Amino acid sequence: HLVMNALLNMYSTLRSLEDVRKIFINMPERNIVAWTALIDAFLQHGCKADALQYLRHMQGEGVFPDIVFLLTIMSACSEAATLSQGRQLHVSILEMGYEFDIFLRTALVNMYGNCGVAEDACKVFAQPFEQNVVLWNSFISLHTQLGLDDDALQHSNRMLLEGVLPDRVTFLHGLSACANKSDIVEGIKIHILALSVISGLDVMLGTSVVYMYGKCGHLEAAWQAFLHLHDRSVVSWNVMLGVLTQHGEFLKAFNLFGAMQKQGVLPDVFTFVHVLEACLGPAALTEGEHLHTYIVEMGLESEVAVGTALVNMYGKCSGIEGACRMFEEMPKHNVVSWNTIIMAHVQRGKHRDAFQLFTEMHSKGISPD
RNA sequence: UCCGUAUCAUUAUUCG
Asked: In the structure, what pLDDT confidence band is assigned to residue A28 with cuts at 50, 70 and 90?
C-alpha cells in the first residue's frame, strides 16, 4: 500500500490524470490515502467537479474519510454551486468529532467564504477554540475578497492585540487591502512592520509592496521598491508594468518590457495585457503587431484577456475594422470581450452595429452585465 | 503506523 500510494502521489505531479487514474484502478486495495491522492491529483489540475464525483464513488464503496481527506476535498467546494456539498462535509466533521481541529476550521472558513456565505465563515471563526495566524489570515482574506478592506485591516489589528504574531501572509493581505483602498498611510505602516518582523522580504512580499505604492499613486516609491527587489518574478515585472501604464508612462513601460526580456524573463498573459495597453494610438501599430506575433508564437492568443486587449489595441491603433477582425479570430468570448467590441462601435457612433452585436451576444447565451 | 494535510502577490471592456 505504502509503495503504491507514494507512486500515486509522484505520478499525480508528474504525469497526466489518465495515468493517475490507471494506477488507481489497478490498485488491489484502495485505502483512504489512495483516495486522497487521487482526488488531490484532480484538484491540482483544477478538476473540482471530478473530485466531487469521486467523493460520491468513495462513499458508495463504504470508505470512511479522515482528517486529511476532508481537508483535501474541502478545497473542491469553492463556489456557491458546491455549498451543499460543503455543508455535508461540515456535518461529517462534526459527526467525527473533528470540530476542534484547527486545519479543518481554517478550511471551513475558506470553504464558506468561497461559497459566498461569509456569515457561516464568521461563525466557524468565532468559535472559542484554539487560534493561530493561519486561521486569522483566512478570516482576514475573507474580507479583502469581498472588498471589505477596512474590516480586513481592523481584524489584522485585532489579531495583533490578541498577541498573535503576523507572518508574511498577513502582510500580503494587509498590503493588498491598503492597495485597494489607496491607503498610503496604513500601507507604509505595514511595510515598515513587515521589514521589522520578517528578515528579508521574499519576492511575493516585495512585489506586494511595489503594488501597494503603485495603487496608492506613488509611482516613484513603487519604482524604488521595484529596483530594490532582490529577486524578480514575472509577477514583479508585470506589477511594475501595470503601475507604469496606469500612470500613463507608456514609453517607460515599453522600455521595462525590453529590460525584462533582456533578463530572460518569459512574458505571460498579464505582461502582454499591460504592454498592449501601452499602445496608445496609430504610432504604436507596428509595435502592437509585433506583440501580436509574439503572442501567437507563445500560444497565448486563445486567452480571452489577451484577445480582448488585442481588440482594444487594434481599435486604438488601426481602426474599427482591425478590431472586428481580431474579435472574430478569438476562439472564446466572455462578457468583457463582447463589451469591448460593442463599445468600440458605440464610441464611433455605429449604434446600429452595436445593437446588432448586442443581440448576437444574447443569442450566444452570454448575459449582459 | 509508515504514505497524503489549512491561509499566499499582478490582468482585459465603460466621456461608467
From this structure: confident
H or E element, residue A59: helix A48-60
Alpha carbon separation from A319 to A32, A350, A354 (Å, rounded): 59, 13, 15
For residue A77, give the H/E element and its range.
Answer: none
Q: What is the DSSP secondary structure assignment for residue A332, as one 8-state letter? A: -
Q: What is d(CA A22, CA A196) in angstroms, rounded to the nearest whole number?
A: 51
As given in the structure block, the three cell numbers for residue A252 are 517607460
**ipTM, interface predicted TM-score of the complex:** 0.86
**Residue keyed to cell 455605429:** A350
CA-CA distance, A225 to A243, in Å (whole number)?
A: 12
Q: Kindly report the pTM of this predicted structure.
A: 0.90
* Strand B interface, A 77-116, C-beta < 7 A: 102-103, 106-107, 110
CB of A236 within 7 Å of some strand B atom: yes
How far apart (Å, rounded) are the C-alpha atoms in residues A333 and A361? 9
